[in-house]
Records
---
Amino acid sequence: MKLKFSKMHGLGNDFVVLDGVRQSIDLSPEQLRLLASRNFGVGCDQILLVEKPSQAGVDFGYRIFNADGGEVEQCGNGARCFVRFVHDQGLTEKHEIRVETTGGILGLRLEADGAVTVDMGVPVFAPEKIPFLSLTDELVQLLTIGNEAIEITAVSMGNPHACTWLPISIRHPLLLGAVDRVTFPLSAAGQCRLHADCRTAGDSTACFRTWGRRNAGLWFRRLRRRGRGNCARPARLASACYNAWRRAYYCLGRRGHIRADDRPGGYCLYRRNRDMKSEEIAKYLQDNPQFFEEHADLVARIVIPHPHGGRTISITERQMLSLRDKNKLLEAKMDELLQFGEENDTISEKMHRLAVAMIAASSFQSVLHTLNFHLRDDFSIPHVALRLWDRSDNTDELPEFANVSEELQVFAETLSQPYCGSTSGFETSSWFGDAAEHIRSQALIAMRSGGGTVGMIALGSEEPQRFYVGMGTLYLERLGEMASAALVRVLR
């Protein structure tokens, strides 16, 4: 069996996403476990299945399977991947969709900036709906683990969670089925870092963001409304979590926001910001130079890899190295430009001598001699040949007026600049006589007068790269213009 799949992640929680709309999918728990295996399968925390809806008013079915093959009710990070997947795969063009899960209906929205917002619905604290076996509806419950009593709060966001200060077992007789556990280690400064273990999916890099922050705020407000005096310790936890929830909370270099809606029922909206691109960061720093003044200590603390070794250096030292390397490149470029300038001066001097000599030539043969002599001695071009289209009675015996094909004349007419390259396929190779078999590269220059093409000059070399495609042809064009003017003058 072959299935098409996509690999996606939300804040580090990775998923294998399957399109059950355009292909038939019916996987057993054993097949799901194999697919999720990081050793023998694709590897993922959970498998997400997109299906056709089974009821009106819903766009898709959304099923979630943990790595052990068991189906679960809810996954907020998976829901964000879900909406991107159905858009990227062309399954919908709607920016706001409703999906059905075993835990209820979810509202998903793709924002204009690429972020995804998930309406997680109403948090459920009623024990019988979580489910959590309890004789009371108190927010804080006691669980006896061995000889220790642990305070927890049970809550469901479509899937059950047990929230506590310290790690607890995933299973407990009062927790009817597996639950996600969320723990809150408290620092000496009174700040808490939320940690999540998602049942059989294991430690989560992101679920502590989606559950902890959104429910901490709601939990805090619920405690505040109840006014329980004996809830000081849980209230301290809720207050710490609420403060964390109100800030932008970072994880693995990415940022998301949780917002508890003030609508009746306290809906939770989970919004994931799109990752900033390096170009956007660079533009921000360019547009806000005051950043470096406001965070001068940060710039001093940042260390980055040395460009020429394995050690790290400060960003200031790296800037100095970068400027030094830039200076070296500029110096090399300047040396190269100076060399080109000197070479151009030399070529210009040679072209000047050629022009003076051709002006002094008074006959057709003297022009040819001058052209051959200067190209051979000044420019080291060993083979020169030319052909002229128009013939007169006294030129029939000259090789320069030998017949050329109509195709070559058309080719010369269409040349906007000299041709440089191989001799293969050109009849011009025969113009070089006995040396023809040794010619490996050539330059073909059209000669023009009065707006029309009157002939062609061929320059040949035994070196394959003497005349090559893409080389500069400015001086070759000037050579063609001078030779045309001189030859037309003496042939009148």
---
Amino acid sequence: MSPSRTSDEARLVPIAVDELVAILQQSQGVRTLLPRGLATRPVVAVAKPRAQAVTELNLAQMPREIDLDPDEMVVTVTAGTPLADLDAAARAHGLFVPPILTGTPLDARMPGQHGLLAGTIGGLYSDPRELSTSASLGRVRDHVLGIEAVRGDGTPFKSGGRVVKNVTGYDVTRFLCGARGRWGVITKLHWRLQPRPQQAASAQFEFGTASELWRGVDAIRDCGREPLDAWVMPDEHILGIVEASRGEFASTQMQHYRELLQDNGGTEIEPAAPRGTTAAESCNATTLVRVRAPYSRWATLTNPVAGVQWERVHPFADFALARLPHHELTPTVAALLQLRQQWAPLGATLAVEAITPDLFGLDRATLHGTDEPSAVRELAQRLHKEWDPHGTLDYEAADGP
């Protein structure tokens, strides 16, 4: 079957899996394809030399199907299905699609500042970034039972399935999660659902000093149960907490948090949304970076550093978002490399979340750091060579599904 093509020769729009297969097979050694979905999860672009022009592979017109079994709490869904549609289908049966829990104060904050239900389920699977609820609800890969996809060379394949069972060999489903479509285009997913909480509660607390703030965070961590989400604005000495439950537990537990934090110098304040900036806004004057570090390091990492502005820290999920200075005296690249070297002894890594114009053309190692050789990295490189030998899928320049 010949692939669908719009009037623009630089854009291909498949409307079915067999058309997608044909496009990939016919593009081997001929063109480089840039997969795009709804473009609501922008990731860093890496400007690199290419032997041929890049053609957009627009996946927005692929089928949208939801096959939900409320008794087994499992759904099979096509990758192009909007998260909002899937959430509505699950909500109708008192379920939710973990780790995306709507109906709480988290909604307007993640991921990518577009809201929890922005984009598609395939985009969520392909996005490597953590959510702030990773500690309480698990990572995306913890809930995916199986996938169907098409490799970069045009070969369809399946991994896992709709039923939970023993897996022999390497777990490809979990391995490909967060790969940004590097080895293929995801077409269908099998997802485990969970009962939807019926109650949500939230509160914010202000502390007089940084030491009091982190003592309060320690008190929450040591109380026997971590909340659904906890976020810190270290520059303002503010701690926010969100809890959710099926019954009255959320409000009861929130009262316990209040007592703990007040005993540690916290004062409850009127809720204010954490700072958050869209990807477009973040490209204007500063560079947004994702900092990953062990829990025990955040009190030290958030000590004032010239020019660094902390958006928010999710200490229980082991990541934070921060802004780097961007002016003539302190170029962004210099600030990035300096902080990476300064924070490395603390076990922290930095990756650019949203790119600024002065970072275009930099290699991936500079933007994301250089990983030491490992068995996983070697496997990833081998899969890329075997599944996409001609480099047909240009995942590095993708804006994200």
---
Amino acid sequence: MQSLAKAWRIFARAVTAACLIAVMQITDAGERGAHWPALFGASKAAAEGDPKLSSLLGVRPQSILGSTGAGGIETASDERDLQERAKFAPEFVDVWPNDMPPPPPRVREWRMSWNFRMPEQDEGAANTPAWRRYAAAAPVDDGRPRIVIVLDDLGLNRRNAWRSVALPGPLTLAVMSYAEDAERLVDGIRKAGHEVMLHLPMEPENPLEDPGPNALRVDLPDGEIDRRLSWALARFDGYVGVNNHMGSRYTADARAMRSVLREVRARDLLFLDSLTSGSSRGATLARSMGIPHARRDVFIDHELSPSAIARQLNRLEAVARARGHAIGIGHPHSMTLDMLAAWLPGLEARGFVLAPVSAVVDIPESDLAGAETEPNVASLSAAQP
């Protein structure tokens, strides 16, 4: 009987420990409903250069982030290591949080490996639109297909937000309007050579889904929409434009979207339609109002598994080859970041160039600027993916 009781206690402790590890992993990744075995395996596989994971992406096995610690981030073993890394990324010394592992030394190498074309970035130039003034440096358009990677929801999971900043770029990172310590995060994003978007919460079709505080909702009076919009737009500076968080119901409502896009136009920003709904009027209205705009082509991590993400990245490459550029939207899940860390360094060798969203926006004809009439929606619906 005693041996049976002892065996039961050992079993109970093992189950408890496994549950605690699972909860910590899920909490850290910021992912709900993920497949646990795949979630546990992906971070370790990417960090160690697992050939199976690498083969999904079509890249050679390698440890993308070098000597890795927990979650695939490099960790500083001593003061000399920190000093050595600071030589590669000195711009991070003042902005990088002390409790975060330092950025990998290849950050600066990644930035310098591109043939950059600096856009109009004189922040004091009154005549430069904000979407150009704050644009990230874009590689010269040399005819290669351009791929844009947008990561939404930044700032909700602090650790993974800074992991996103440490990825090679230029990426486009959409910071949530209600993110904590957003100004510091935006400063780090821009110093890393990435581009910043304001991620604006909007009403979804499913009333059980919560887009977050101060979300824009269709049934709000115009005055309240304006108040919430002004609050969001004033949360931080340095962003090139706005894209929607959720918003499948809100973006389908022309009246509601005009309220947003008038403010976007007044501030000389661009608009990226995340296309959370095929009924979205966002990009169509932006075009009619003379606003620089773009549409999402591929959701990278709608299904959270290594094979599904690899499939979507391959699809993104196919769209870019066919059309000249493609925009993929993902999120700072641990698994997504692991997959991107393995996939991004090989883009150039596969014939692509990474670009910020400002480099691929559709800029309407000048004679459309200020127009309030919508074009024929039916004629444009085929352009939506």
---
Amino acid sequence: LGRMAMLLKKRDAAWGMRNTQTPPFEPYVFINRNTSDPADPAMAPLAFGSQAWYVPAAETTPFTGVPYSPAHTIEQSYYDLASTDLAEFKTIVSGGPADWWTQLDYRFNADAFPTPPLNSDKAALAAPYLLGGCAHFIVEYAGDFCSQKPDGTFAAAGSDGILDFVKDPVDMLGVAGIRWYGLTRTDAPQVTTYSAFSGTAAVFEKVHTATRYACAWSPTELNSDSLRPRLIRLTVELVDSNNRLENGLRQEFIFTVK
């Protein structure tokens, strides 16, 4: 399992992008958003292909900066600093193209065991490595996307103040459980996509095939009670080639979305 943690930092009005704590205040190299270049990705600096830049020490306001050499892009895992913050990136997404999410749908280059002789590019590929022996990493969500009949079947789209639920088909009078949405899997047949349950695709359901289900929420959708997820469930299964984890070790984590 891999991931790449990115530090988000807007350019400082007085310093640009540099170390402000320790002399000689060397410039940082960072993944840039270049609004003056029409070829720059609309979702930069977090989009696929976003380029590394730096602001020379001699440069003053407005700290435009220049492309860094040797050239690197964000997906190459070489740099982990991007010139934005959450508030600004919300604005970027809100003003972006309808398919804004496609520019963020990529994987970072990675190599858990780079081969010698090592250099900085090879070493950087080890940065995304997070967890070995991960057979499954499953992401599912829950929310109040619709109203339901007492037996748990779909009634109408729109929030009704009750988290979407599922009823045991044998014991309809029993306690309701959380209805989790995601790609249907054989070990959890009660999990379905929202479109499969409601009969109509939601605006946040971007890709739905037999093997892939992708959802993405814009800032506007995250502010809507009937569109935003309330819970995220991560299911991680670890296996060991020497069978020290018999039948694998599965762990489940549930997070509340604020």
